[in-house]
Amino acid sequence: MRLRNLGPGLLVAAAFIGPGTIVTASRAGASYGATLLWAVVFSAVATAVLQEMAARVGLVTRKGLSEAIRESFSKPSLRFLSLGLVALAITFGNAAYETGNLLGASLGLEILSGLSPKLWAFVIAVVAFTLLASGTYRLIQRVLVGLVVFMSFVFLVTAILSKPSLGELARGLVPSVPPGSLLTILALIGTTVVPYNLFLHASTVQEKWPQTRPTGEALTESRFDTALSVGLGGLVTIAVLVNATPLSEVSSLDPWGRRLFGLGLFAAGLTSAITAPLAAAYATSGAFGWERDLSSLRFRAVWSFVIVTGFVLTLAGGSPTEAIVLAQAANGLLLPLIAVFLLFVVNDPKLMGAFRNRGRANLLGALVVLVVMGLGAYQLLRVFGAM
Hints:
- The protein has 387 residues and is mostly helical.
- It has helices spanning 8-16, 19-32, 37-61, 65-72, 76-113, 117-133, 137-161, 166-171, 182-192, 195-208, 215-243, 255-287, 297-314, 320-346, 349-352, 359-383.
- Helix 1 runs antiparallel to helix 10 and helix 3 crosses helix 14 (320-346).
- The chain has a single domain (3-383), classed as Amino acid/polyamine transporter I (Up-down Bundle), CATH 1.20.1740.
- It contains 16 helices and no strands.
- The N and C termini lie far apart (51 Å).
């Protein structure tokens, strides 16, 4: 299997290794050591399982995930309700998500330069806007892949230099929930198993593997791409957790440590600042039956809305760390809904034929949904004082 077959999976990794990952994993490591390492491993496995399904939907049906959902629901009222919910949740959710992406990238550049993060947020928003406006998928993919490789190198090197205890890492693989850690666990899952990535993946695999390619070959290459890319993303998250440098403590690092952390945070923010608007455009365009084309006016209007809204919200101020962590937790609560829709589609024999889900895949998918639903329900009960 050649590395040139990589692509859409690395876009997924570029999307979930964002500021949310850096901030959440750093806080998890600083507060609980390696105790929550199991949550990162679970998140990576869950991501690989769900992303494989989403990519399979795209390659078999040659439709985006929103379009596939639309065809799976026969009743117009149910179809309208489900797709309206998806479009609103992804578009407006990603606009809020974009705020964290721009804040994270700008904080990274502030660490490096000392200049105002609001100025850098504007620069990063312009860069993301310009790259998406190019309308060239191949260029977007190359930029994102390069950034993923770069930040992976940065965070893995910093983790190795921190000389973690292998015994502590091994103990962290045993599931446990320390007091007060539930929101952090939910945020770790929400920052890795990102709902909008399912829409992004289902659409971008069609750019990588055209319809002329035999479906079986495309699926084999796509699975390799997904497993390797998500695995790399999981390693980066583990590296950040092991290094455990919260934003509040960056100033205490030596000059090289500050530079590395700033570069990594910048790269993570920029990749997510590009992929979040792109995914929102794919999801919304598919939901309303619009053309899923980078040059389409409606497609451009959606990603433009996400970038502009995200930038405006960065000007409102507030704590970037808290905003990013809460966004990841909210993302974890949205995940079960989107995952249920995905399972419904991937089991539809009319759409998927011989490539529909089998028992093991359904079992893994259901397990992911149940775990995230359980954590989310428990957290909501705690918020409202029922527990």
